[in-house]
Each structure stands twice: as structure tokens, then as C-alpha cells.
Amino acid sequence: MANSDDLLLIEVALRDSRHIEVIMALDRLFLMPDNEASLQAAMLDLDIVKRFINEHLPERLRAPARAIFVEHGRSMGDHFRAAQNRE
Amino acid sequence: MGVKHFGCVRFDSDDPNLGGWAAVDGQAAYRISSVGNLDNDTLWWTNLSFKAVHGANLNKTPYIKRTTYLNSWLQDGQVEVCNGWGLLRRSHTEKAITESLSGIFTRVMSFAGGTYGIDFSRSVPTHDNLADELRCKILPDKDPHIGPEVDSALWAAHQYYTYCLTPYANRDETAVVRFAVPAVAYATEMLNAIVPTDQVEFVPAEKLPPAEQRLDWVINHPRPALVRVTVSNISPDYVNVIAFANGAKAGSNRAWISQPELLLLSRYAKVEINGLFLFGGYESLPPASRLPSFTAMQAMTPSAEVIASNHWIGLARENCFRLEPKSTEYRAIAPRAAWMTAIDRFVMFTYALQLHRAGIAIRRYGAGAVTVIVPKHNYRDAYEIATSIGLIAPPGLVADIETQDELQTHG
């Protein structure tokens, strides 16, 4: 997992008014998906974030950014499966 | 009946009788001609100030919330959220800003509903800010008054911000910039704080050790103390940043301070202790106060920032109006609230001090941020120092710095 310095640098890089579509995609990922439609929407947002990591982050921050990306993806999957099992 | 949707409205000026942009649930924004166009099935987060809402008698409409609903500890509400996330008018249209804010508001409220158990479909949120909404769900009982003397000492010790003494700054040539710590990590830190229990005894000056030993005795005491002090001779190098009692509540000369503040003041000023309240012991905040867990990626979002900040700040306040509406003099401040605000100002002081040492004028600090005054055409120094010590700069600054560098290079 990324250390707090890396997390800060990733957040600083992200908070740039030129990346507002990435900030909004991230913000939509704040709510975990409960159903198929919200899962599909979340996948599209994940794609926007992935592109930002690969194209805009400095080389040194890409590995820690990918790690937090994977952590979120796993957490999202767990939440979705739990919601499906409840139904 | 409650509300079904969450919307954001941005009036063209601070007047609900004029037109503006409105958006619901993050969907496309549309024009409205006045507040009368807004439906009552939606909770509306407006950009209206206290003055505009009360001036139009709109404060009696529960589904209309003021600009500071999501960040009541700041003065500029929606503007602060926009500054914090780069939703600037010169880069984005009002329509796009309204849609973005509407999306953030919807997610914050949906999360608050699901996680804190606020049932928006049953009733419209009654408080005028989210911090109080969350506080009443986290700790539903009001903080008790301990006793008139202790209450009054806690009231004097409780302070949200330290307002620094600044040199004269020409407003045309300077800008005010707010640097903040990452909100979720900071909220976690604040909620891990240990705070005093409610049991308390008064220790008069004659029962304290001799004057020259008192400071060490209090600082090293295993029980938390609320101390009555006389503060003088603040080190001239730090007097502007410490600015003792600047920001105190009206009618208080800050004669009472908590241990975290005593620790700080004793390093930079002459502090005489004239008496104290000794609390029973330290305790952790109750489990219900714990911050919801976020992934590292969630923690970097505007919605997480809003939730985390409201969560801890809601616990660091006096009883809100709805919990203690008939208070004759002042509402109760728990030792918890006095300690949390003192710890917050202590931590923020350490950041402010580093900026001050680098020659940057500090305007105020507290609530997880340091606000500074920087020359309008040279943001780079402040930006680089702030980010190197772990503070987050407003995103508009990056583009401004690049423009300034480009212009200066060209010159």
C-alpha cells in the first residue's frame, strides 16, 4: 500500500482544475455500486481514473496509484457481491 | 414527508428573487427565474448567504439550505468547495459548476443517509448544517452542563481558529489562500484523540505546588487539566502566529486554557498558573464516533472530504441549537469539544509555524487548515513550501503558477 507521502502527492496531482472530469469520476466512485447499472457506471469511471494514472501522474507515483486503484476495485467488487447476496 | 432528491442551486447573485442555475442529483442543470421554481421534493443546497436567506425570510423553508450547509466552519460555503476542487468560474461554466456541486451534494447526502441513518424520506433535515446533522446521529444526547464555573471555563477555553496578527497587506496586491491537510487522514487523527471525562474538581492556587514548579506539575500530570492562566511576554519571533486570545469568544479574555494549549504556550511565553480544574481522567471517544472506513481512493474525493470534516467538527462544538434550544445564557461545551479544538489548533500551529518561518504571513489556522496571505503575482514560494510540509493547495494555484512562470520567463 502507498505511504502517506505518496498519497499526498497523488492527491496534489489530482487536485488540478484541468482534471475536473477525473475528480468527478473519482467522486462518483465514492458511492459503492449496489446494482448492475451502478456497477457498469463505476467501471466507466474506473477507466477514466486508470487513464489519468497512466497518462498524467509522474512515473514515480504510478505504482502506488495503481495499488490504491486495485484496492478500491477489490473493495467495490466485495461491496457489489454482498449487495447481490442480500437481494 | 421528507425529500426524494438532492439539488444544488446557484443564484446569479446573493438574492433568492433573482435567476440562477439549478441541478438535481448531478443531472443536467437548467435555468430558474427565482426561488419559486424550486420544488419541495428536493433538498436544495443554495449559494445564498445567511443575510440573503434571512433578508428574504427564507429561513423558514426547511428544504432550502444556505451556502455553508456542507462546510459551516468556513464563511464562503459553495465558493470554498469550488476553490478546494478547482471548480473555478474562469475555467468552467456556471452550468457545469452547478452540475458538479449537485453531484457532490447528492453523494454526500446519500452516504450520510445510509451510513449515519438519516432518513431523508421521512423528514427534511432540520439543522442548518451537516456537521450538526451528523453530530446528532453520532451522539444523540446533548452534552450536559457540568456546573456554572466549569462551563464558563470550558466556554473560555473553546476556540475554533487562531487569528494571527498580520502586517498590513494591500488587498490589491495580495491574495488569501487556504492550505489544508488531507481531510480523511486528519479526521481519523482527531477522532483518535483522548479527551477528559466529565468528572472534575477545582484545585485552588494555594493547593498547587510552588509557582516555579506548577507548569511542569500540570504538564506532567496524568489527569487532564483546564488551567486558569496569565499569559505575557510571548516571544517576539512567534507572537504574530501564536496571537493568544485572538479569536476568543466575546466577553472572554481566554484566561482558561486546556493542556494542549498550555504545552504550546509554555514554550513561547511566560505562563503563570492561578488555579485549575482537574478532570477525572482521559478516555477515548465512544465507538459511535469512529469515522466510516474509506478506501485510499475514496479518501481523495470531495464527498469524503465533506463527510470526514463534518464528522469530527460536529463533535468539536457546543450543543447545537436543536439539542439545547432553550439555553438562557450559552449552550454547553463538553470537555471533549474544548480538547478537540485545542488539539486541532496545536497541530495546525505546527504547520503555520513552518510557513511563518519561511516568511509567509499567516492569517488564521484551525479546522484542519492554515490560511495565508501571499503576493498575487508570486504564488510559487507559498505553494512549494506548503506542499513540502504536507498541506494541499487549492488546485487553481497550479494553473496560476504556470501562467505566472510563463509570463515571467517571457518578460
Topology:
The complex is a heterodimer of chains A (87) and B (411).
Chain A lengths: L3 H11 L5 H9 L7 H21 L2 H28 L1
Chain B lengths: L4 E7 L8 E5 L5 E3 L9 E5 L3 H6 L8 E2 L12 H8 L8 H23 L13 H9 L9 H10 L4 E2 L10 E7 L2 H9 L2 E3 L3 E5 L6 H9 L5 E8 L6 H4 L13 E3 H10 L1 E10 L2 E3 L17 H14 L19 H23 L3 E6 L2 E7 L4 H9 L7 H15 L1
Helix pairs in contact in B: 3-10, 4-10, 6-10, 9-11
Structure characterization notes:
- Chain A has one domain (4-86).
- Chain A has four helices and no strands.
- Chain A has helices spanning 4-14, 20-28, 36-56, 59-86.
- With 411 residues, chain B is an alpha+beta fold.
- Chain B has two domains: 5-125, no CATH class; 148-285 and 331-410, no CATH class.
- Chain B has a five-stranded mixed β-sheet. A four-stranded antiparallel β-sheet of chain B has the order 6-14-15-7.
- In chain B, α1 links the parallel β4 (42-46) and β5.
- Chain B is globular.
- The model of chain B has no long low-confidence stretch (mean pLDDT 92).
- The A-B interface holds A 1-2, 4-5, 7-8, 10-12, 14-20, 23-24, 26-31, 49, 68-69, 71-72, 75 and B 26, 84-88, 91-92, 100, 103-104, 107, 110-111, 182, 185, 295-304, 387, 390, 392-396, 398-399.
Concise summary:
The complex is a heterodimer of chains A (87) and B (411). Chain A is 79% helix and 0% strand. Chain A is mainly alpha-helical and 87 residues long.
